[in-house]
Structure formats: structure tokens, C-alpha cells
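Supplementary Methods S3. Complex input for the cytidine-5'-monophosphate-bound model.
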Amino acid sequence: HRQPIIAIDGPAGAGKSTVTRKIAQALGLLYLDTGAMYRAVTWLVLQSGIAIDDEPAIAEIVSQCQIELIPDGEQPRTVINGEDVTEAIRSLEVTANVSAIASQWAVRQALVKQQQAFGRQGGIVAEGRDIGTTVFPDAELKIFLTASVQERAKRRLLELHTKGKIEVTQEQLEQDIAQRDQLDSNRAISPLRKASDAVEIQTDNLTIDDVIQRVVGLYSREQ
Ligand code: C5P
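Predicted complex, serialized as C-alpha cells:
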């Protein structure tokens, strides 16, 4: 019998990463960031000069690559083919291309398989777009985190300011987020969708701690 699994899905910028990381710490679960895996493959494709729509070449690359998610305090490190890409996968270039890569069947098939292997023993909290619907449809607790486009852009801008990166405007971020939502929600395979048995939390007026308390509360009711 496996340990419990928490699935956290939702659109870009709804606060999934922070919430998932802290829930993992609070409950002593492993943290699985599936977005980092799609980002790492995107980084590799860009790096190798393969066209973003060359599906056969990308299928080949993804079938041969090795992705490691290494626990390291607050922020686990992402390593692909031995190279640490933890920072590189957050670039605007990777972010702009990741949805196109993540819509490809061969990419999803390979990564979902790895994610399921990672969760075989349970005891994890996984975040992504299709965790509750496709990767772990039998997860004990499914959360769907949302926030308005404006709120998500505002949070991203604040985050970029904190890191000293201020080359984008709120409007640009709103456009990027809306476009990524559009692509992620309308693709043919495993689109971003709330599982029928997921609990939706709208976070516009909630703090991170509010959200964590709710999830931890729901989780302890499950036990
Ligand atoms: O969560 P994050 O913003 O890092 O995810 C990056 C992209 O990876 C998403 O916009 C989406 O296109 C893709 N993704 C996905 N399925 C997942 C996780 C991420 O398609 N489970």
C-alpha cells in the first residue's frame, strides 16, 4: 500500500510552486515539480538548436534524456543530462516556448511515465497542470489553485522586481500569462482542467499562509 499523494494543479502564476513547496515541508512529503521537467526538456531543445515544432527530433531527445530533481533545502535543483539548469529554466525564453513543447504527445508520454514512477511509493505532493486528471487520478487530495490574470501578473512582477529583473511591464506579463493559459487549456492531450473531484481555491484575496492552512486542513480530514 502506498503513502498518500496530494495533486496541485492550476494555471501559471496561481502560487502553486510556493504553496506546494511549503506543504511538502509542513507535511513531510516529497515535492514533485512537473513544470520543471517540461522546462528542462524545453531548455535542452533550445540548447541543441532543434526547431520547436520538429516533433520527431524532440521525441528522440526526450526519450534519451535523463532528468533529476534533487532535494536541496527550499528549492530542489533540476538537472538534465548532468547539467544543473535550476536557474536557466526560469528564463523568459524557456517560459515562452515551454507550452509548445509540453503539447507534444511524445514529450508528455515520456514525462508522465517518469512522474508516475516517482510517485509509486506515494508520500509526495506534485504540482502541474494534469496531476489530478492524468498523472495521479487516484490522488487522496486534489487541489485546483486559481487567481485572476491581473493578480497573477502582479505577483510575477513583484517577484521579478525582488530579483532585480524589471525589463517587463505588468501589461506584458498579463499577455504572456493569458497566452500560456490559452495554450495549456486548449491543447489536445492532457489540457489544464480541474479534476471533477478537485477542491478549487481562488487565491486573489488569500495569503500563501491562508492557502497552506486550507490545504493542510483538507489533508488532515483525509487521514
Ligand atoms: O508550472 P510551470 O509554469 O513551471 O510550467 C511550465 C509549463 O509546463 C506550463 O505552462 C505548461 O505548458 C507545462 N506543464 C504541463 N503539464 C504539467 C506541468 C507543466 O503541460 N504537469
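The chain has one domain: 5-216. The domain at 5-216 is CATH 3.40.50.300 (Rossmann fold).
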